[in-house]
Here is the input.
Amino acid sequence: MTDTYDAIVVGAGHNGLTAATVLARRGKRVCVVEKSGQAGGMARTVDYAEGARGPEIAHLLYNLSPKVAKDIALRVETRKLPTIAMSPDGKHVEMAGDTLRFADGTAHPEAEAYAALRKRLVKFARLLGQLSDAPPPSLAEGLAGLRDIGGLARLGLNVKRLGKQDMREFLRIILSNAYDLLLDDLADGPVAGALAADAVRGCWSGPRGPGSVFTLLYRLGQGGDVLLPMRGMGAFETAAKDAGVEMRTRSTVASVMVEQDQVRGVTLDDGTILQAAAVLSSLAAPLTMQLAGARHFDIEATRRLQRMRAKGTTAKLNLVLSATPDMPGLSDAQKAARLIVAPSATHVESAFNPVKYGEASAAPVLEAVLPSLSDPSLCKDGRQVISVIAQFVPHAPDGGWTAAQRDDLSKRIIQTLEVHMPGLQDLITHSTLLTPDDIETLTGAPGGHWHHGELSIDQLLTVRPVNGLSRYSFGVRGYYLCGASAHPGGDVTGSPGRNAALQLLAEGVLS
Ligand SMILES: Cc1cc2nc3c(=O)[nH]c(=O)nc-3n(C[C@H](O)[C@H](O)[C@H](O)COP(=O)(O)OP(=O)(O)OC[C@H]3O[C@@H](n4cnc5c(N)ncnc54)[C@H](O)[C@@H]3O)c2cc1C
Here is the structure.
């Protein structure tokens, strides 16, 4: 059986769905092929247990591109959450926008320094954020190169417009480490810890790593508000269906067909052939190359793609609780906040050390949220769900993940939470742990990596995923990369998906 489309998208993660929707809304016939039974990739809502739902992997929005939301008519209701930096002494700190105060409402001595630092970081982050909604500048020579460099020139101009002092500061910090930056202005406590954790979440790096300021700014590119998507992350799938995208779930793309250097479609693992003049892959770049066959890429590109670094460091623990846990020092409303357990920036750095040697941190850095407190539709009978991202956890410990190691990791995460939620263990009725290895199995992301490939200086912008393949068009005419390993990177942004689809149209592949 052979069906013919204008474009086929491999993978129904939110980027694949975004790319498909952009094309479908411009009149193209698009089919998305997804190996699992449910769309969404890392951004989907699942049953934790009978009558209790929650985010499977990604749980919060902070980096969604407004251009994407507009372009695909995304209808997602959100609730803005404050962040609570949990303190071992019970004096937790509430961070809401530029405001900092103790959770009991009393003034925090660092409120002024924090507000000034955050304002400065958000200002810089917005500048960088401008680069996210377009392909990165190309290094091509001639007129094309000059045209492409426009975005960078605009950034340069805007950096200059910051004024002398801010411009110097921007250039001083942009490639430096978050640890030094934060501790220039803040004491090494839970506030610095929360910001340091934000800087390296999903990365193979501690806050002392060079470039960790960049990853902090990347997170803040849309202003830094933390949003809980009400009723889960399903809006991308709804937008795609509304636009007329055809979805084929439980279908795995086995290979991409190429003839005479031109994409012709895909072959599914059951032998079905789907034809199209364009194929967009939201798989990581090395897998995208393998689907078409390395022989279609020049030897240098093949070598670079094989070397792309992608070691995941985040695990996910999803719990169903029989009741809302006790959290001394927090009001009922504050229990619904984004909760960060990172007692100091130094703690975050130390937590990174074991993962270098294939071990999980004994005191993991946590980001937890109880979405059912804000969105009671997720849970029945007074139960609650808690969604926890734990860092630093190795992708493949020596000898692989044994049942005992998995059990040990779950216990460490729960014990770390229990310091702030006494009695938590007794409330747990269901527990699901996803190690980075499990995340790779579920989604195909190499190493279970948050960004499908490290977001580091040598894998950014013009060299993301690798030099020579940074502008979505992927080696073969009609073949495009549209997932998190493309510019600007991961998070639930939709930007790689939208940029890739627009680039495909601009290059006239479907005209
Ligand atoms: C633990 C963790 C927590 C996170 N939390 C957040 C968060 O709270 N907020 C945030 O903004 N970001 C978060 N992220 C990052 C974010 O989820 C990802 O960067 C983003 O969702 C990637 O989207 P994508 O569409 O590019 O790829 P994916 O979501 O990985 O989608 C790829 C899709 O391709 C499918 N697929 C794979 N192989 C094939 C094949 N051969 N044929 C067909 N289909 C195939 C997969 O099943 C999958 O559906 C988190 C990441 C991790 C690991």
About this structure: Residues 2-44+233-309+453-506 form a domain with the FAD/NAD(P)-binding domain fold (CATH 3.50.50.60). The chain has 18 helices and 19 strands. The CA atoms of residues 377 and 427 lie 20 Å apart.
